[in-house]
């Protein structure tokens, strides 16, 4: 009888634990063997169900404890294997691809080189022709069923064309938000570039163009922000309009990051700090610096300024260091900064700190530095020229609007290419990467609301770059 009661407890425990294993043991009287019980209603002798009469003690099936234990272990393993991919989902992996096609031809179905560590079905997204991240000289058709694509170039085009593919495993039940909060660049997607060589095109070098925008989006929480309200609405509009650029560095992305990325089609994004799980907590724990890009963003290092002044110390201002993976496999070091306001000593200390960091971490490499510098060339004690010369950087605005001659008396304003902004874009070429700024634009008019009001209290400058990169992916 003790054995029967023990088996019953194990069966009950299995049900309580939700193992999905139903173990039913017939009720057994607890009277001693040979005692037929009492006809007067002895509760220990009365069977609890008719099934007890149908199965005398001698005919009960024998249960092997080892078999029962193995069944329980198998059930636990099944639960574990079902829960882990849901709670601890792993990101799919996409790798860059290169294909060749004759002029006027087509690639035929080409399988995407991507896999999912959890075995989830993947989906593939390529933006339409002519927009950032999409093909520029042909048409791409994606077949989700076969996980492949077909590229058809323009009939007369000869050269290299590049597009970005975003790979997602967001097709099955999993807590992708958890990985998005805690891991880099979301938890359920990856990004890679596909380069197509059309006709008699050299494959040792890849050329192309991309746009770089920097924008202080005035994301301080209400009522601290000096931009128009409501900030969550206009931040969402900013995020949607950033889709028109290849790469965007944003500053003051403190309190409304979820709204910034709500309508974003930028497949590679740096995770905010602190995670959006803690929204709306941003100040004073966030540096407000993030990058959104059509290219894959690799690495991320956040650095805080050693020196700050007054209300600048209420946030952990600083700079970020990451890398843009270009077609062909080379990378560009990308910096995003937000210095102390007011110029002068503390702003110059910030520039000296990032100068030292770039010298230590980006020696000989291609570099782009953007952000809210809180300084102008006309400012007293301005260290902008020293910053540029120490790092062999070129200010794209100075190069394209003033022929390389630094203006010392440019007027500040919100709209116009000739006026000087606090927000700047510097660059240089480096090993395996040649960069050349070919266009500059103050994009402020493209970030007005329906009433003609600016969506932020800053104007965003944009630089169009032409690149030639070594093809290290051969």
From TrEMBL:
- Residue span(s) of domain Endonuclease/exonuclease/phosphatase: 310-458
Lineage, opening ranks: Bacteria, Bacillati, Actinomycetota, Actinomycetes, Mycobacteriales
Going by the entry's taxonomy, the superkingdom of the source organism is recorded as Bacteria
Return the protein name. Answer: Endonuclease/exonuclease/phosphatase domain-containing protein
Q: Annotated Gene Ontology MF terms?
A: catalytic activity
Gene3D superfamilies found in the cross-reference section: 2.60.40.3440, Endonuclease/exonuclease/phosphatase
């Amino acid at each position: 009888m003790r054995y029967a009661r023990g088996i019953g407890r194990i069966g009950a425990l299995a049900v309580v634990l939700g193992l999905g294993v139903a173990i039913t043991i017939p009720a057994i009287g607890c009277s001693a063997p040979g005692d037929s019980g009492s006809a007067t209603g002895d509760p220990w002798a009365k069977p609890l169900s008719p099934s007890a009469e149908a199965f005398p003690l001698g005919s009960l099936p024998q249960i092997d404890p080892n078999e029962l234990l193995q069944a329980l272990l198998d059930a636990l393993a099944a639960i574990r294997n079902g829960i882990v991919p849901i709670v601890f989902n792993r990101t799919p992996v996409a790798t860059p691809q290169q294909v060749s096609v004759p002029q006027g031809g087509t690639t035929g179905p080409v399988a995407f080189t991507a896999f999912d560590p959890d075995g989830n079905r993947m989906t593939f997204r390529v933006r339409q022709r002519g927009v950032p991240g999409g093909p520029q000289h042909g048409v791409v058709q994606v077949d989700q069923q076969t996980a492949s694509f077909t590229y058809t170039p323009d009939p007369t085009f000869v050269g290299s064309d590049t597009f970005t593919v975003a790979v997602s495993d967001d097709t099955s039940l999993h807590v992708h938000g958890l990985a998005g909060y805690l891991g880099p660049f979301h938890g359920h997607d990856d990004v890679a570039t596909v380069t197509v060589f059309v006709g008699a095109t050299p494959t040792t070098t890849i050329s192309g163009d991309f746009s770089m925008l920097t924008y202080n989006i005035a994301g301080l929480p209400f009522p601290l922000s000096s931009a128009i309200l409501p900030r969550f609405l206009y931040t969402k509009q900013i995020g949607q309009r950033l889709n028109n650029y290849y790469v965007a560095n944003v500053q003051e992305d403190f309190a409304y990051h979820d709204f910034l990325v709500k309508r974003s089609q930028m497949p590679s994004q740096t995770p905010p700090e602190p995670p959006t799980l803690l929204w709306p907590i941003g100040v004073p724990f966030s540096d407000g610096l993030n990058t959104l890009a059509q290219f894959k963003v690799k690495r991320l290092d956040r650095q805080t300024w050693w020196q700050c002044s007054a209300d600048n110390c209420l946030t952990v201002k600083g700079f970020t260091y990451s890398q843009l993976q270009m077609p062909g496999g080379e990378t560009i070091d990308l910096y995003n900064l937000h210095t102390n306001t007011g110029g002068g000593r503390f702003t110059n200390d910030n520039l000296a700190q990032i100068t030292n960091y770039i010298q230590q971490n980006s020696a000989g490499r291609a570099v782009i530095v953007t952000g809210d510098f809180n300084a102008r060339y006309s400012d007293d004690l301005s260290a902008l020229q020293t910053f540029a010369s120490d790092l062999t950087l070129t200010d794209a605005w100075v190069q394209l609007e003033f022929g390389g001659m630094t203006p010392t008396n440019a007027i500040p304003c919100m709209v116009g290419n000739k006026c000087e902004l606090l927000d700047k874009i510097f660059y240089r070429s480096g090993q395996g990467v040649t960069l050349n700024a070919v266009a500059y634009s103050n994009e402020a008019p493209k970030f007005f609301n329906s009433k003609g009001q600016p969506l932020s209290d800053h104007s965003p400058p944009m630089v169009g770059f032409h690149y030639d990169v070594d093809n290290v992916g051969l």
